[in-house]
TrEMBL record:
Domain NAD-dependent epimerase/dehydratase: 5-230
SUPFAM superfamilies, per database record: NAD(P)-binding Rossmann-fold domains
CDD domains referenced in this protein's UniProt entry, alphabetically: AR_FR_like_1_SDR_e (cd05228)
Gene Ontology MF terms in the entry: aldehyde dehydrogenase (NAD+) activity
Name of the protein in question: Dihydroflavonol 4-reductase
Cellular component GO terms, alphabetical: cytoplasm
Domain of life assignment: Bacteria
Pfam families: Epimerase
C-alpha cells in the first residue's frame, strides 16, 4: 500500500477504471499520456501525468521510482490501412516499455493482452488459456499485433523479467470514452440506429472486474502465466434483449446475413477509401463478427479470485454513462 505504480493507457477504458481502483486501494499512480491526448478520463484524479509514448527512448526515466507497472496501452483499429501503426504501438512499443521497465528496476509488470491474441476455434465452444489459434489465422492486423505483443511479454520473462499477462474478453461499463466496439453497439442501440443484428456472441465482463483482475494478477499471478479476464458468454441477441430490459427500448428482431455488411465493407474500404471516402464499416470487424467469441475464465476465478459481478449491472453502468454524456459516434 502506498507503492508508486506506473500505468500506460490510463486515459483509456480499462486504464481509467484501473487507475481509480489503484487510488482507492492506496497506491500512488504515475500515468503515461501522449501529447495532445484526450485526458477527460483522468480529470480530477490525484495522478502524476508524464508525457511520452511507448516508443520513447526516455521511458526508463519516466518509470524511475515506481515499483510496479501496468501496461494497458494499445492502439486499437480494425482498419487494414493501420497495420503499420498497430505493429509500431502494440509490438515495438510493448518491447520498448518492457525493456524500459527492466532498466528502471520495476519489480513486476502486468501486461494487458486480449482474448483477441488467443483467437477462437470457430466452433462456438468456450476456450481457455491453453488454446492458441495460429497467428496467421487470427483475423486482422489488430489481433495479430496483440499476439506478437504477447510474445514480447513472454520473451521478457525468458530474460528473467517478472511479467504477468492478463487477457480481458469484452469489458462493459463506464469510462468507455472512444467507445469500444461493444460500447458502440450500446450507443447505436440507445440512439435507435441498430435496426438489425448479426448472429454472433461475446464474453462480457464488468470493466470494474477487469480492473480488479489486473490488481489481483499483480498480487497473486504467476510469472509468465496468462489469465483470461472474462465472465459470461452471451449471444448478441441476448445482449440486445438485456439492453431492452434495462432501457425500455425495443430490441431489434431482424438478423442480417453476413454477406451484406461484408459487401458494404469491401466496397467502402477497397474501392471508395482510396479516392477519399471515409469508410464506416471495417472488413476485419465484419469478419470477426462471423466467429462466436466465447471464453472460459475459470483459471482467473480460481487462482486470482477474479470477481464475477452481474453483467446486467455492468450494462446498466454503461447505459447510464453514455446517456449522461449524450455520447455520439464521431
Amino acid at each position: 500500500m502506498g507503492d508508486r505504480v506506473f500505468v500506460t493507457g490510463g486515459t483509456g477504458f480499462v486504464g481509467a477504471n484501473l487507475v481509480r481502483l489503484l487510488l482507492q486501494e492506496g497506491y500512488t499512480v504515475r500515468a503515461l499520456v501522449r501529447a495532445g491526448s484526450d485526458r477527460h478520463n483522468l480529470q480530477g484524479l490525484d495522478v502524476e501525468l508524464v508525457e511520452g509514448d511507448l516508443n520513447s527512448p526516455q521511458l526508463t526515466t519516466a518509470l524511475a521510482g515506481c515499483r510496479y507497472c501496468f501496461h494497458t496501452a494499445a492502439h486499437y483499429s480494425l482498419w487494414q490501412r493501420d497495420r503499420a501503426q498497430l505493429h509500431q504501438s502494440n509490438v515495438l512499443g510493448t518491447r520498448n516499455l518492457l525493456q524500459s521497465a527492466q532498466n528502471a528496476g520495476i519489480e513486476r509488470t502486468v501486461y494487458t493482452s486480449s482474448v483477441a491474441a488467443i483467437g477462437t476455434p470457430g466452433t462456438g465452444q468456450p476456450v481457455d488459456e491453453t488454446f492458441q489459434q495460429a497467428p496467421e489465422d487470427l483475423i486482422g492486423a489488430y489481433k495479430q499485433s496483440k499476439y506478437w505483443g504477447e510474445q514480447e511479454a513472454k520473451a521478457a520473462v525468458q530474460r528473467d523479467q517478472d511479467v504477468v499477462i492478463v487477457s480481458p474478453s469484452t469489458p462493459v461499463g463506464a469510462w468507455d470514452i472512444k467507445p469500444t466496439p461493444t460500447g458502440d453497439i450500446i450507443v447505436r442501440f440507445l440512439e435507435r440506429r441498430m435496426p438489425a443484428y448479426v448472429n454472433t456472441g461475446l464474453n462480457l465482463i464488468d470493466v470494474k472486474d477487469v480492473a480488479w483482475g489486473h490488481l489481483l494478477a499483480l498480487r497473486k499471478g504467476n510469472t509468465g502465466e496468462r489469465y483470461i479476464l472474462g465472465h459470461q458468454n452471451l449471444s448478441l441477441k441476448e445482449i440486445l434483449d438485456r439492453l431492452a430490459q434495462i432501457t425500455g427500448l425495443p430490441a431489434p428482431q431482424t438478423t442480417v446475413p453476413l454477406w451484406l455488411p461484408l459487401g458494404v465493407a469491401w466496397i467502402q474500404e477497397r474501392l471508395l477509401a482510396p479516392v477519399g471516402f471515409q469508410p464506416s464499416v471495417p472488413m476485419d470487424g465484419v469478419k470477426m463478427s462471423a466467429k462466436v467469441m466465447y471464453y472460459d475464465a475459470s483459471k482467473a476465478v480460481t487462482e486470482l479470485g477474479l470477481p464475477q459481478s452481474p453483467i446486467d449491472a455492468a450494462l446498466r453502468d454503461a447505459v447510464q454513462w453514455f446517456q449522461a454524456r449524450a455520447h455520439h459516434r464521431p
